[in-house]
Write a structure and sequence with these properties.
The chain is an alpha/beta fold. Helix content is 42%, strand content 12%. A hairpin with a 7-residue loop joins strand 8 (311-312) and strand 9. Helix 6 runs parallel beside helix 7 (173-185) and helix 11 (281-307) packs parallel to helix 15. The protein is globular.
């Protein structure tokens, strides 16, 4: 039995979830673009800062986060903001503060479940509606809470993502409201991961609400700045707590966890994060341009995949799409592919880029689903990628045409 087969057997045995040590987690899709020169200058200018930020972030960084959220209709007191070196560290603090078991949509970001397992908590997945991923079906949520409690569990937190990784969709406001109301009715706190909210492909045509606008006293908002504002190698994340006595208590408890784990931002990264959060024109223009070009690539890839029988919700945000190859199951089986783990390995080899299977996101192992990134389609060299970013018609560039043709040929041979 190969290592892959042994791992697949273990995942099947545990009902689709690996409960062993976390040795691999797919990284979030990269934007594939060079770091902005002004961000480099800010980081370099702060290179002499040898001390980390205080636990939860210094005053300048938290005030920049306050301004960032205020521009998005979420007024915030700096005293109700916490910052950390990356979203996983911050989520660990948030979950440590809440206690209890956690409910997650299926599928969900790959990095959520490991934090829950590290704390020895139980994670229960809830199906998402047909309209979008990231937010659980409200009726399925109520039934899952009932079942978990019947089994002796203690569900206290619902995690969701209005702008979703891995499905690249945006939850409709009515679905979001019903899910939040269902959660609150069961006494659940809500952690809203809004990492990808600034990567909307068509921001003027997409209605986006935060759960914090709907249930302000029950929702914590979490955002990893690597979603749109900073390079992934400069880890920084921010959290916004409710303006209530419990919100204050949760922030203090989160700071206790961040302090105990030494999760303080490096000074230079904190300076770059504060600069990016203020969204000067250079940063804002790059964010808009990157979202636009990745949107064009995702739409083109989606259209070609649908034409050959690969299903996927239309991508609305992010740098990826989530494809379902069930209709190609027979052809894949002839190539030794029968589940998501084997599909990940097969497409990783054929595409030459990581293609994490749905099992990484809490989806069923037997389902032939995979997250496909658009970053590799931008080009191989920095020059090609920057050309794609600034071209009036990126899809007309020869190197992008070739990349899309090579991409779809891997799936076309399965028809």
């Amino acid at each position: 039995m190969t290592g892959s087969q042994r791992a697949a057997t273990e995942v099947r045995r545990t009902g689709g979830q690996s409960h062993g040590p976390v040795r691999y987690g797919p990284l979030a899709p990269e934007h594939g673009l060079p770091v902005l020169p002004e961000l480099i200058a800010v980081l370099a200018g702060a290179a002499s800062r040898s001390a980390p930020e205080p636990a939860g972030g210094g005053a300048a960084l938290r005030d920049a986060a306050r301004r960032y959220w205020s521009r998005r209709g979420l007024p915030t007191d700096p005293g109700l903001i916490a910052c950390a070196p990356g979203a996983p560290a911050l989520l660990l603090g948030l979950l440590g503060a809440h206690g209890g078991d956690v409910l997650l949509p299926r599928p969900c970001p790959a990095w959520w479940a490991p934090q829950i397992r590290l704390l020895g908590r139980r994670a229960s997945h809830v199906p998402t509606p047909a309209e979008a991923g990231g937010v659980p079906d409200p009726y399925a949520l109520l039934e899952t809470v009932r079942r978990v409690r019947t089994e002796g569990g203690d569900p206290r937190v619902l995690m969701l993502s209005v702008v979703d990784d891995p499905t690249a969709t945006v939850a409709p406001p009515e679905v979001l409201r019903e899910a939040c109301e269902a959660a609150v009715s069961q006494g659940l706190a809500v952690i809203s991961d809004e990492t990808w909210r600034d990567t909307l492909h068509h921001p003027r045509q997409t209605v986006l609400f935060s759960p914090a606008e709907m249930c302000p006293e029950e929702v914590i908002v979490l955002a990893d700045l690597a979603g749109a504002l900073l390079p992934a190698g400069w880890p920084a994340a921010i959290a916004r707590f409710p303006a209530s006595p419990r919100g204050t208590w949760l922030r203090d408890r989160t700071l206790d966890v961040l302090t105990a784990t030494g999760a303080g931002l490096a000074g230079p990264v904190a300076g770059a994060a504060a600069y990016a959060l203020d969204e000067p024109e250079g940063v804002a223009s790059r964010v808009r341009a990157a979202a636009t070009v990745h949107g064009l690539l995702a739409a083109a890839a989606h259209e070609r995949l649908r034409a050959i029988g690969v299903l996927a919700r239309p991508p609305q945000a992010g740098r990826h799409l989530y494809a379902d190859l069930t209709r190609l199951r027979d052809k894949l089986a002839r190539r030794g592919v029968s589940d998501a783990m084997e599909l990940e390995e097969y497409l990783g080899r054929r595409l030459g880029t990581p293609s994490p299977g749905g099992h990484r996101f809490g989806d069923d192992l037997g389902a032939l689903r995979v997250r496909l990134a658009t970053g590799p389609l931008l080009g191989r060299s920095e020059e090609e990628r920057m050309t794609a970013l600034t071209a009036p018609d990126p899809l007309g560039l020869p190197h992008i045409t070739r990349a899309l043709d090579d991409f779809i040929s891997v799936f076309d041979e399965l028809r």
